[in-house]
Amino acid sequence: MPSDACEVSLDAVNKFYTRGKRALCDLTVKVNPGEFVVLLGPSGSGKTTLLRSVAGIERISSGTITIGGAAVSSGSNMHVPPERRSLAMVFQDYALWPHMRVKENVAFALARTKQNRSTRLATALEMLERVGLSHHADKYPNELSGGEQQRVALARALVAQLGLVLFDEPLSNLDADLRERMRIEIGTLSRLSGATAIYITHDQSEAFALADKIGVLEHGRLVQFGGPESIYNQPASEFVARFTGISGDIKAVIQECVAPGMVQVAVPHSSGGRILAKNLSNAPLGGEVSLLFRPSALRIVDTNTENATLRAIVTDVAFRGRGYDIALRLQDGSHLNSIYSDHRMKLNESVGLSVDPVGCFVFGGRTSSLDSQSLLSCHPLHEKETVA
Ligand code: ADP
Ligand code: MG
Q1: b/e for 196-220, b at 16 or more Cβ within 10 A?
Q2: Is the CB of 226 under 6 A from ligand 1?
Q3: Which of 6, 53, 104, 278 meets the CB 3.0–4.6 Å disulfide criterion with 68?
Q4: Three-state SS annotation for 29-92
Q5: pLDDT given for residue 311 in this prediction
Q6: How far is the centre of ligand 1, averaged over its atoms, from the C-alpha of 42 (Å)?
Q7: Strands 221-226, 213-218: parallel, antiparallel or unpaired by DSSP?
Q8: Residue of 17, 27, 199 to test ligand 1 pocket, by largest number of atoms within 8 Å of CB
Q9: How far apart are CA 303 and CA 273, in angstroms?
């Protein structure tokens, strides 16, 4: 099928709602043709506003949006209406026509093509076949499950090969078991179609699983844009690190700069082993910081082994099928969760933790009274794709 994928770019886009609410702040981002970009952010961060602005449902206050090289919104005056933007959208609530059969819902997306009715229906059936729903073609949407309805919506979005598909949290109304299957289907079929995809969600695991690139939104600002791996390994801020999944954090003090961007920290009740972390703080030597751990950075080990740099007590054991998620309490009283174990551990069991610097980040920058003179030459090393 491949469609002619569109480049989408937003340049310094601002959106004020009435009563002064600023939902998008100087937002600049470029989505390359054929790329699958996920915009990730908590509720209220501006995701829906951004998507609706690209779709043309919402008017921007200033800035420019271009699709396929042509400006579709510029400032508060120039605004191409949604029906002339040649893009398709998949909504949270499926938004199918209840009075039309499944095949007619899909064929409706071809209404503006020059194809005659029977060709449109044949093309719709082909697309339904691809999403595994051809046997439901003559049913009405209310005769289908939520997952099936969302597949119809996906078929409708892809059938016209418009080059740009927008997804507004399409999995959030589905049950957990369906969500994963549908996530795979969306990823596979959108990529097969060749279209550019912009997908918004508040779910970090969905974002990491689907995206070629992730943009993280905070209060209407794009705070980081990059590949899933770079966002996981090099979060631009404490907010990004927390929002993309940590086991927990503890207070620490910077002891020594061991390499550019890498520091050794002291933590309360450590067993004496070295704890190294990526320095993303502005703290000087001796500065008090927060040490954040990705779940992947922590490994449960025997309390006596050399690499058991932290000691903890097991407070919760959750069986996850492929293993166990362990929650722990450290000696200073702080909690860590989602730590992997391949076997069931006992509640209140004492364990050691080894810490991999790759998933440990130091943020913050309060100067400790212990030592405020020595400023550190070991400051954040961010990748170029990081946005301020
Ligand atoms: P998200 O989709 O990330 O939850 P939204 O784009 O829906 O975020 O909202 C961003 C901000 O704009 C929020 O503070 C929200 O309350 C506000 N907002 C959204 N729509 C409107 C509206 N129609 N009128 C006024 N404020 C709005
Ligand atoms: Mg929303």
Answers
A1: bbbbbbbbbebbbebbbbbbbbbeb
A2: no
A3: 6
A4: EEECCCCEEEEECCCCCCHHHHHHHHHCCCCCCEEEEEECCEEEEECCCEECCHHHCCCEEECC
A5: 92
A6: 11
A7: antiparallel
A8: 17
A9: 12
How far does residue 150's CA lie from ligand 1's centre (Å)? 24
Q: How far apart are CA 228 and CA 30, in angstroms?
A: 16
Closest by Cα among 25, 7, 11 to 197:
7
Any ligand 1 atom below 6 A from CB of 17? yes
For residue 53 and ligand 1, the question of a CB distance below 6 A is answered with: no
Assess whether the C-beta atom of 45 lies below 6 angstroms from ligand 1. yes
Ligand 1 neighbourhood includes 117 CB (under 6 angstroms): no
Whether 362 contacts 265, CB under 8 Å: yes
Supply angle C-alpha 293, 387, 85, rounded to 5: 120
Q: Please state, in angstroms and rounded to a whole number, the distance separating the CA atoms of residues 127 and 129.
A: 5
This prediction has a pTM of 0.90
- Mutation test residue for ligand 1: of 38, 48, 50, 167, the one with most atoms within 8 Å of CB: 48
Cβ of residue 228 lying under 6 Å from some atom of ligand 1: no
Q: Nearest 5°: phi and psi at 18? A: -60, 155
**What protein residues have CB closer than 5 angstroms to ion ligand 2?**
47-48
Q: Is the CB of 215 under 6 A from ligand 1?
A: no
More confident residue, 381 or 338: 338
Structure tokens at 146: 């939520």
Q: Does the Cβ of 47 fall within 6 Å of ligand 1?
A: yes
CA distance 143 to 52: 29
CA distance 141 to 118: 21
Residue type, 326: I
pLDDT of residue 173: 85
Q: Which residues pair with 199 in a beta bridge?
A: 38, 167
Which pLDDT tens digit goes with each residue over 154-195?
A: 999 999 889 999 999 999 888 888 889 889 999 999 999 999
Cβ 107 vs Cβ 156: under 8 Å: no
